[in-house]
Design a protein that fits this description.
mainly alpha, 4-stranded antiparallel beta sheet, 19 helices
Length: 415
């Protein structure tokens, strides 16, 4: 069942956090996604009629099926977002700059303190540390502030009808109908992301069916409620079922020796910690790597970037989202919430020769010069590219929309 979640979120993980989790906007309370307007589509109506028969054969009663399908509308914006999934890429420095931003870190520590009694009870039952569950909550929905407000039935029906991953999304739609059939929530509350991920911890419906728990004991597995208890416990149950080991780290930042054989790096190369120590791998203070079982060396930012020795819990987190950046984000955010320090290795420049701070400076200076980038998170997306094009055009330069060191220097000189 987890493979379904991984196959969806592996695609979503190519997006910048600013696109899927709000990127740096202030957290003033739950916010809805921009309203999506349903459009008339006769072919979609025909698809719903055919699906009604399939759903009935799968055991969905008409008392659930009829109101759900009658209210389901075709959402063309959902199709557009699905097509744009792989539009952006980012460096590890970019990703962590947003995933472990000062705002997300401070709000995470506050959320941990506020819900500590519940998180400790969850840890006692499922064996997953409070900081880890808090970090997942922070990356998935900004601690509940961005749970999604798109009708799940409409979104999943639209994606199933579209057909690009029709069988997958139809299975999610059936699972969503079973959520209504069981009474875990209502049609009005069954809302989430454009891809059908739901609640505080963004479960897709099949994952919900398999792993969601009623931690509050009210008879409903309510991951959408203002009270996040069921959602946080469900995430812990998921990790527990995937093999999480309490008291063991996801990984530790490491220092590689001069001449380290990079062919030995990667998740596919697992060795005893003693073997890595014999090869000269140390923690950032020059000490031996602690032995938490078989380990791999990971260099996600290239040979000159930060390195990590990763353990079993890294692979468990990969079950939640099949992205190395995501897992490092969760692991590092949980470490920082616990009181750990920032990553100490040197991040590498991007393909333009720029670091995260350079791109943020470009965004700030463009906005000050009258070319608004709509934020300064360092991710060069459509708004920043439009601002760069406008700045270049205004100065009679070749219009590329791409950042560069020359652009940064020109902005610094007020050119």
């Amino acid at each position: 069942m987890f493979l379904s979640r991984r196959s969806l979120l592996a695609g979503l993980s190519t997006l910048p956090l600013s696109a899927c989790l709000g990127g740096g906007a202030p957290m003033s309370g739950p916010r809805a996604a921009p309203a999506m307007r349903a459009q008339a589509n006769p072919e979609f109506d025909n698809w719903k009629a055919a699906f009604r028969t399939r759903a009935g054969a799968a055991g969905i009663p008409s008392s659930v099926l009829d109101p759900a399908l009658n209210s389901a509308g075709f959402l063309p914006d959902v199709i557009s977002r699905d097509r744009r999934q792989a539009e952006f890429t980012r460096t590890l420095e970019d990703y962590l700059g947003i995933a472990v931003s000062p705002e997300r870190l401070s709000n995470g520590r506050a959320a941990l303190s506020r819900h500590m009694s519940t998180l400790r009870a969850i840890e006692s039952r499922f064996g997953v540390e409070p900081e880890v569950i808090t970090a997942i909550w922070g990356l998935e929905s900004r601690y509940g502030a961005e749970r999604g407000d798109i009708p799940v039935i409409s979104a999943l029906a639209t994606l199933a009808f579209d057909g690009r991953r029709g069988a997958f999304f139809e299975s999610q739609l059936i699972a969503a109908l079973r959520i209504l059939q069981r009474g875990d929530t209502s049609m009005q509350n069954l809302r989430g992301s454009w891809a059908g991920a739901m609640g505080h911890t963004q479960f897709i419906p099949t994952t919900f069916q398999e792993y969601a728990v009623d931690f509050t004991g009210d008879g409903r597995r309510d991951i959408w409620a203002e009270d996040p208890s069921d959602a946080l416990a469900s995430a812990a149950n998921y990790l527990n079922r995937m093999g999480w080991r309490r008291g063991q780290p996801w990984g530790v930042e490491a220092r590689l020796p001069e001449g380290f054989d990079m062919a030995a790096a990667g998740r596919g190369s697992t060795r005893a910690v003693q073997a890595w120590s014999a090869a000269g791998v140390r923690d950032m203070d020059g000490r031996a790597i602690p032995d938490h079982g078989p380990a791999s060396v990971l260099t996600p930012d290239g040979p000159q970037g930060p390195a990590f020795v990763i353990f079993r819990n890294f692979s468990v987190l990969m079950r939640y989202n099949n992205s190395e950046f995501y897992v490092i984000g969760i692991g590092h955010l949980s470490d920082r919430i616990r009181g750990g320090g920032p990553i100490r290795g040197a991040f590498q420049p991007d393909r333009f020769g720029l670091r995260l701070g350079d791109r943020q400076e470009i965004q700030r200076r463009l906005t000050t010069a009258g070319f608004d980038t709509q934020g300064a998170d360092g991710v060069i997306g459509p708004n920043s590219e439009a601002a760069i094009r406008a700045w270049q055009q205004a100065r009679g330069q070749a219009v590329t929309g791409q950042p560069s060191r020359a652009l940064l220097e020109a902005l610094r000189q007020g050119a």
